[in-house]
Fold this sequence. Notes:
It comes from Chaetomium fimeti. GO terms for molecular function: hydrolase activity. By secondary structure, this protein is an alpha/beta fold. It has helices at about 1-20, 85-95, 130-140, 140-150, 165-175, 195-205, 225-240, 275-280, 330-335; strands at about 20-30, 50-55, 70-75, 75, 110-115, 150-155, 185-190, 215-220, 245-250, 315-320, 325. Helix 6 links the parallel strand 7 (about 185-190) and strand 8. It binds 2-acetamido-2-deoxy-beta-D-glucopyranose (9 copies).
Amino acid sequence: xxxxxxxALVGLLAVTGLAAKSPKRGLAAVSNKDWPEDDAIWxxxxxxxxxxxxxxxxxxxxxxxxxxDRIEFVPMLWGGGVNDTDxxxxxxxxxxxxxxxxxxARNITHVMGFNLPDQPFEHGGSQMKPADAAxxxxxxxxxxxxxxxxxxxxxxxxxxRGGWIDxxxxxxxxxxxxKDCEFDFVPFHALGHFGVLKDRVGSFSSxxxxxxxWVVEYGYNDQNLSxxxxxxxxxxxxLEDNKDVARYSWFGSFRSTVSNVGPNMAMLDPWGxxxxxxxxxxxxxxxxxxxxxxxxxxxxxCSAEHPxxxxxxxxxxxxxxxxxxxxxxxxxxxxxxx
Length: 338
Ligand SMILES: *[C@@H]1O[C@H](CO)[C@@H](O)[C@H](O)[C@H]1NC(C)=O
Ligand SMILES: *[C@@H]1O[C@H](CO)[C@@H](O)[C@H](O)[C@H]1NC(C)=O
Ligand SMILES: *[C@@H]1O[C@H](CO)[C@@H](O)[C@H](O)[C@H]1NC(C)=O
Ligand SMILES: *[C@@H]1O[C@H](CO)[C@@H](O)[C@H](O)[C@H]1NC(C)=O
Ligand SMILES: *[C@@H]1O[C@H](CO)[C@@H](O)[C@H](O)[C@H]1NC(C)=O
Ligand SMILES: *[C@@H]1O[C@H](CO)[C@@H](O)[C@H](O)[C@H]1NC(C)=O
Ligand SMILES: *[C@@H]1O[C@H](CO)[C@@H](O)[C@H](O)[C@H]1NC(C)=O
Ligand SMILES: *[C@@H]1O[C@H](CO)[C@@H](O)[C@H](O)[C@H]1NC(C)=O
Ligand SMILES: *[C@@H]1O[C@H](CO)[C@@H](O)[C@H](O)[C@H]1NC(C)=O
């Protein structure tokens, strides 16, 4: 009796939890050490978000206890790994942990390789020569695909062909006993107006026909609210409907006060409440919470206790008598280039 009732309840929760999930919709997780509580918002009951990445090899603290079928963690080999196999070792320990070694096995099915290796460090890139990246790929990623069937994402670069990717793939097959270095999906960024998104999806899909595309950072940066919201609606329908796009993640999982892409792309207002865009992304209705309200901060937005210097990833913010002043850190502003 008790068992039947319990499993009916568990079944119901599983169904309601899963029914709301969107297989495409994900989270580009940008945590801020000043407000770790914000991280829980994206995975609350009924959230349609089905996967996340955090630019890092390990899970985010807040999601560490959530299994892959609750929200899929996609690790990233951000950069480096040229002369070591640390990433391979870390992934192996995650997929097949030694007995009694700590966390239980995590069924990793997708991994992303290198974030903007075609860009210098000072612009937020991982600054890798194609030949070095190929070595890191063959050492760390090829074995994950061969041994565990993990699907690999091509490095995130600006140009689908030419410049960086072609020499990378050539170096890679030369190192890989002349076998092509295979990949299973192609992640990239699209910041700018709607035409930019359409162009990038078009050019990546012609460069890699039939390979699933992941738009892992997108948005129309530094626009007023109405333009940003119009873009948000238009881009979301486009990405949902486009057959070549397998996954997408809006860039905005942070408070407007620490945004380096303009406040209106942020999914949280200065107090950590969802903005309209944030709520829409989670399948809810408009909240009416403005990204940058005109009034002075009321609560824990920016204060002596919370000086709002950001977690390092985002812009710096100052509090002045007139309210919130916002400027992008020179380096940070370029962190998320196309
Ligand atoms: C990975 O992250 C989890 C959750 O925060 C943590 O418990 C674990 O120690 C981390 N693993 C390593 C090797 O740092
Ligand atoms: C990798 O090893 C090569 C050859 O030993 C060396 O020249 C290179 O500097 C090393 N690269 C890194 C990033 O450590
Ligand atoms: C691997 O895990 C160790 C902690 O055990 C961490 O220090 C290191 O940065 C990780 N390296 C990679 C490339 O995943
Ligand atoms: C891992 O997840 C994939 C996709 O959901 C599934 O096909 C596979 O059976 C799972 N593997 C294990 C060992 O649970
Ligand atoms: C390998 O990469 C280097 C740059 O890192 C490039 O100069 C060279 O042409 C590439 N090799 C091939 C065969 O494309
Ligand atoms: C928002 O920006 C767009 C494009 O720059 C402009 O056409 C529009 O008038 C602006 N709207 C408001 C309310 O400022
Ligand atoms: C965007 O879509 C929401 C419904 O999801 C709607 O309420 C809102 O008016 C739309 N805004 C624009 C600018 O299209
Ligand atoms: C916004 O957040 C503050 C502080 O966490 C809370 O007191 C307030 O009720 C929230 N407002 C809305 C509209 O959710
Ligand atoms: C959104 O608003 C509509 C109409 O007011 C309401 O029926 C619906 O339950 C609301 N949805 C959520 C998720 O609050």
